[in-house]
Amino acid sequence: MRNLLKILPGLLLPLLGTTLGAGMVFFLRKELKPSLQRALLGFAAGVMIAASVWSLLIPAIDMAEAAGGIAWIPAVVGFLGGIAFLLALDTIIPHLHLNAEHPEGSPCNLGKSSMLVLAVTLHNIPEGMAVGVLLAGVLSGESITAASALILALGIAIQNFPEGAVISMPLVGSGLSRRKAFRAGFLSGIVEPISAVITILLTSLVTPILPYVLSFAAGAMIYVVVEELIPEAQSGEHSNIGTIGTALGFALMLVLDVALG
Q: What's the number of domains the chain is made of?
């Protein structure tokens, strides 16, 4: 019970961010402007890039070095493994990116709304894994502190807030009621605590692979950034808006991780 209370805030914070963002459908009457969508997507990309480096890759390298191994091997192997994992999911799971006309993944008969939700769900998986592996490190007594895990969860929750709004508002525009759009946004965020719990359970079984799992989560997050967030943030006119959003998201996560970690 004590361990559960220790990790519960980290598990629930990202979902809370998504839920609050999805709740914007009840307050915003019009879909977000494309320029604002690009800025918010860029912001999410910046947060995920910074989190991948400071919260995942650097601790993985430090842990491998402290164990007396070759420091870069777990980082490279895990990172490429995370990329391959998300590439496989991206190829298999049917989904539709924001502002895209044609779906990706396996052919299916799902509607546009379901495909949009699946796209967000797909890139919420590595975020949940990232939080889960840090919480697993906390529970195992490794050099990862509860504060660092909480900071990562907070950073992801902050970027999940606009992300929840970005996904839920177009669902209203595609014909769903506001209540159903909110429910879809909320359900897309449920995958984060679920994937976090699965990661905690798996990592706790084989603690020595923690550096590999940290790097795996980083690779999965970077795949989402390069494959989805940055292209969507740079689409259309005034792509520098997405770039500015990325810089702000990166700076915020940097401050949270270095100043408070």
A: 1
The 3-state DSSP class for residue 239 equals: coil
Tokens of 21: 């963002």
Domain contains 133: yes
- Give the domain range for residue 226: 65-232
DSSP helix, strand, coil percent of the chain (3-state; round to 5): 80, 0, 20
3-class DSSP assignment, residue 95 = strand
The model's pTM is 0.88
Domain assignment present for 191: yes
CA 156 to chain centre: 6
> How far apart, in whole angstroms, are the C-alpha atoms of residue 134 and residue 77?
18
Q: What region, left, alpha or beta, does residue 25 occupy, with left being phi > 0 and alpha being psi -120 to 50 degrees? A: alpha
Q: What is the pLDDT of residues 76-95, one digit of tens each?
A: 999 999 999 999 988 888 87
Token pair listed for 174? 């595609």
**Own/partner pairs, 29-37, CB within 8 angstroms, 24+ separation:** 31/169, 31/170, 31/172, 31/173, 32/165, 32/166, 32/169, 34/99, 34/236, 35/238, 35/241, 37/98, 37/99, 37/166, 37/232
**pLDDT on residue 4:** 63
